[in-house]
Every structure is written in C-alpha cells, then in structure tokens.
Amino acid sequence: MAYATIDFHNPHTGALKQAPVGFSWTTLLFGFFPALFRGHLMGALIMFLLGFATFGLSGLVFAFIYNKMYVRHLLGEGFKVARSSWDVGQISRKLRMDLPLDEPQGLALAA
Fold it and tell me: In this structure, is residue 88 part of a structural domain?
C-alpha cells in the first residue's frame, strides 16, 4: 500500500500531478492501465511488453517498483515537489533519490 502521496508541480508548464509512493495495488490489479491513465506512456509500454513476454508474472514485480518509476518519470520531466503527506526528507531517503522542492511563487529571496 502506498504510504505517502506527493503533489508535484512543473514550474515551466504549471502542470500539477500527484504520485503515490510505495506498493501499487492498482498496478497489481490492473497491470499497465494505471501508467497509461497517468500519461506515463513509456512505462505503460514497458509493462505491457514485459507482461506479455512473462505471461503476466512481471506484474508482481511492477507492483513493487512502479510508483518509484513514476516519480522518476515526473522528475525527469521537470516536476518538483509542491507538498507531501509525509516528510519529504524521509521519502527521499526511502526512495534513494533527491526530490527537489518547488519554490513557492513570491517567496523567492532576492540575491
């Protein structure tokens, strides 16, 4: 079960996305469809092809790793953490990746 939820914001496009962190029940139950509905097309394609090649057994592995894959995908697209349901530092340590924080508009310090 996902133990936290992260709200992401893309400062360049203004887009907002939400990503669960932890075990993905939706991926276990519905395969590549959660990735497809989230707009993570490459992840959906990889999950579909590996699921086809392994007769669905790869779905067990993806249930444990997909949410981390999705967070990595969002960071690669320039998204930053706007807020989280858990401490961002703890999530960052559990995921073993740096989670950049979004700087709120109007609160930037002048150099």
Answer: yes
Smallest Cα–Cα separation from 70: which of 10, 30, 22, 31? 22
The stretch 24-29 carries a mean pLDDT of: 96
Indicate the DSSP class of residue 10.
-
**What phi and psi, each to the nearest 5 degrees, are found at residue 39?**
85, 15
For the purposes of burial, counting CB atoms within 10 Å of the CB of 76, is it exposed (0-12), middle (13-18) or buried (19 or more)? exposed
**Residue 19 structure tokens:** 């990503």
Helices 58-76 and 41-53 pack at an angle, to 10 degrees, of 160
- Is residue 93 a contact partner of residue 19, using CB atoms and an 8 Å limit? no
| pTM: predicted TM-score of the whole model, two decimal places | 0.88
What is the domain extent for residue 90?
2-95
**pLDDT tens across 5-21, in order?**
999 999 999 999 999 99
